[in-house]
């Protein structure tokens, strides 16, 4: 556990040990928000040894890099990260072992051209964390860490002359002067040894290797990396290097052939496809199949029976209210009317009404259970199928598909299948059956209302055709514009240390807000379209109420002419059902 405070002045550039790469082009990763300056940009590419890589990549520096730099090697990612820091022209450079992921000859080139005394950032403050001793003689100041604490500070010569833990580490690591029982070498001997090791790792810009690499002289043995342990000595064989060069040339030829066949290779991440037009019936049948056919039929059946029980109880209540009117008191409409006393008739009506209510409550329970089970089966089936396809997808799929898009499918889209679709399905069934029951009651009460149904259906079809096409496309756009929000947030979390080091937090916050704003461009009109539909359905509901009441009045005044007797109980039922339409039409 470390505590303390640090103070600094000027701009800071940070190169982490695990390179953080954005899902953007190589050029944008290097510029990192800075304006393009051709000369400085070219010098940065050369110094960071990126020019050979850009020749291999199909789009050069315009090649899009996948999330986490998935289409780059570890060394390429590290060099892009280093180039980003160099291009910033910061005052302080924090370099967390940036040469560990690159080849030795590339590391030599980068140290000379970037970090070293003759490098691009030679006039800047450079704090380099490294385990490579070959670079130490060219460092101004060396801080030795042991157990999380500073054990020694000084120049290379001062630490060697002090003959402390650092000097002992150098002797053990290099192995110089141990095997023959020699005394500890002097500072000049150590410096000469390190410089010779560095020269052995150098290669020219055309990939030709120094012949001394193939020497069997003991001094040319490769350095062992030390992390508090002694690693085995390794030799570089000529045949192995030839095989590596052969593989590299084959890779370059393959890349060029692929580039010739596919002209659009520079774009790695494809734009998420937005469907257009109506939802295919195959999609609906796929959901019904996921719900299982028996449960789907049971759900529809229970909702039909529930609505039928509700309709029957309301008709029974209307007959009960009609039985107490003076003109119907001596008539037998139902079995309860044949009973002698008022109390018996009332008890009979109440018993039947209560029984219908109990039946309706059980049917509602069964309908809710069947719909819930159907939704669970559908959600589990579709989720497992999607997960199975993701796990069996080739690696190229993950190269071209952002993780935010996959996360969107498993989060928001799965939530829609889990909760939104069952709730919408329930509202659709309930609303459809309620409207049909309302029309049946009104037509039974006032048959002339049939004349109005056809114009109302035509008006409803026009509204539905306009609304559904608009709302469906807005929902699709809202879903596709949500994926970049997840991708950007995940990318920002992964690179939070670099973002804070470069002090560009506000820029990333603004980028996240822009992604959300872009998503709202589709979400807000979707809400507005719902309100647009609600106003028009409310208007249609008011028309139904108007004509239902109007025909009741006309039928009441002209009973003799139209030969239709009006029923007070059914009139009340008709008007009450008509009043419900304005509340259920846009649930």
Automatic annotation (TrEMBL):
Domain ABC transporter, chain residue ranges per copy: 1-172
Reaction catalysis annotation: leukotriene C4(in) + ATP + H2O = leukotriene C4(out) + ADP + phosphate + H(+)
Keyword Disulfide bond: no
Region (Disordered): 201-269
Topology with respect to the bilayer: Multi-pass membrane protein
Compositionally biased tracts (Basic residues): 222-236
One example GO MF annotation: ATP binding
EC numbers on record: 7.6.2.3
UniProt subcellular location: Endomembrane system
Enzyme type, top EC level: translocase
GO cellular component, one term: membrane
Composition bias type Basic and acidic residues, residue spans: 253-269
SUPFAM superfamilies named among the record's database cross-references: ABC transporter transmembrane region (SSF90123), P-loop containing nucleoside triphosphate hydrolases (SSF52540)
Residues annotated as transmembrane: 283-305, 350-378, 425-443, 449-468, 539-558
ABC transmembrane type-1 domain sequence ranges: 297-582
UniProt keywords, alphabetically: ATP-binding, Membrane, Nucleotide-binding, Repeat, Transmembrane, Transmembrane helix, Transport
InterPro entries from the UniProt entry: ABC1_TM_dom, ABC1_TM_sf, ABC_transporter-like_ATP-bd, ABC_transporter-like_CS, ABC_transporter_C-like, P-loop_NTPase
Family: Belongs to the ABC transporter superfamily. ABCC family. Conjugate transporter (TC 3.A.1.208) subfamily.
Protein name: ABC-type glutathione-S-conjugate transporter
């Amino acid at each position: 556990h470390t505590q303390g405070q640090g103070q600094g002045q000027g701009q800071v550039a940070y190169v982490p040990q695990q390179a953080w790469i954005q899902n953007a082009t190589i050029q944008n990763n290097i510029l990192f928000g800075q304006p393009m300056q051709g000369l400085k940009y070219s010098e940065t590419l050369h110094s960071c040894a990126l020019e050979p890589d850009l020749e291999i990549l199909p789009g050069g520096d315009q090649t899009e890099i996948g999330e986490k730099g998935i289409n780059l090697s570890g060394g390429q990612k590290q060099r892009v990260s280093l180039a980003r820091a160099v291009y910033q022209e910061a005052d302080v450079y924090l370099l967390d072992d940036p040469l560990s992921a690159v080849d030795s000859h590339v590391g030599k080139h980068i140290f000379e051209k970037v970090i070293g005394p003759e490098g691009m950032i030679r006039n800047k403050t450079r704090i380099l964390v490294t385990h490579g001793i070959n670079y130490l003689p060219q460092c101004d100041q060396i801080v030795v860490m042991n157990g999380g604490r500073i054990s020694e500070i000084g120049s290379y010569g001062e630490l060697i002359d002090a003959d402390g833990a650092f000097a002992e580490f150098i002797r053990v690591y290099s192995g110089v002067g141990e095997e023959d029982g020699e005394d500890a070498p002097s500072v000049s001997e150590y410096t000469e040894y390190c410089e010779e090791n560095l020269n052995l790792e150098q290669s020219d810009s055309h990939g030709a290797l120094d012949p001394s690499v193939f020497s069997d002289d003991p001094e040319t043995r490769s350095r062992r990396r030390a992390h508090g342990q002694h690693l085995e000595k390794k030799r570089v064989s000529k045949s192995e290097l030839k095989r590596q060069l052969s593989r590299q040339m084959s890779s370059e030829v393959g890349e060029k052939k692929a580039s010739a066949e596919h002209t659009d290779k520079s774009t790695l991440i494809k734009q998420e496809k937005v469907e257009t037009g109506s939802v295919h019936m195959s999609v609906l049948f796929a959901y019904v199949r996921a719900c299982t056919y028996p449960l789907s039929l049971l759900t529809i059946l229970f909702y039909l029976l529930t609505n039928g029980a509700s309709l029957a109880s309301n008709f029974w209540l209307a007959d009960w209210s009609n039985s107490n009117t003076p003109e119907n008191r001596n008539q037998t409409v139902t079995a309860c009317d044949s009973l002698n006393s008022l109390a018996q008739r009332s008890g009979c009506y109440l018993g039947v009404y209560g029984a219908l209510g109990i039946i309706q409550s059980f049917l509602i329970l069964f309908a809710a259970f069947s719909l819930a089970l159907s939704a669970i089966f559908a959600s589990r089936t579709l989720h497992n199928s999607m997960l199975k396809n993701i796990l069996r997808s080739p690696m190229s799929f993950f190269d071209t598909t952002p993780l935010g898009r996959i996360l969107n499918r498993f989060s928001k889209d799965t939530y829609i299948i889990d909760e939104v679709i069952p709730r919408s399905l329930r509202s659709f069934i309930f609303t459809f059956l309620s409207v049909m029951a309302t029309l049946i009651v009104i037509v039974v009460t006032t048959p002339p209302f049939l004349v109005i149904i056809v114009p109302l259906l035509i008006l409803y079809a026009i509204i539905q055709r306009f609304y559904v096409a608009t709302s469906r496309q807005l929902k699709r756009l809202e879903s596709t514009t949500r994926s970049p929000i997840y991708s950007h947030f995940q990318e920002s979390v992964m690179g939070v240390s670099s973002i804070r080091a470069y002090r560009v937090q506000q820029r990333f916050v603004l980028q996240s807000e822009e992604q959300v704003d872009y998503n709202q461009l589709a979400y807000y009109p979707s809400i507005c379209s719902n309100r647009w539909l609600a106003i028009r359905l409310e208007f249609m509901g008011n028309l139904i109420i108007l004509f239902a009441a109007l025909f009741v009045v006309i039928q009441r005044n002209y009973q003799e002419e139209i030969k239709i007797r009006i029923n007070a109980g059914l009139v009340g039922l008709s008007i009450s059902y008509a009043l419900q339409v304005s509340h259920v039409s846009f649930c």
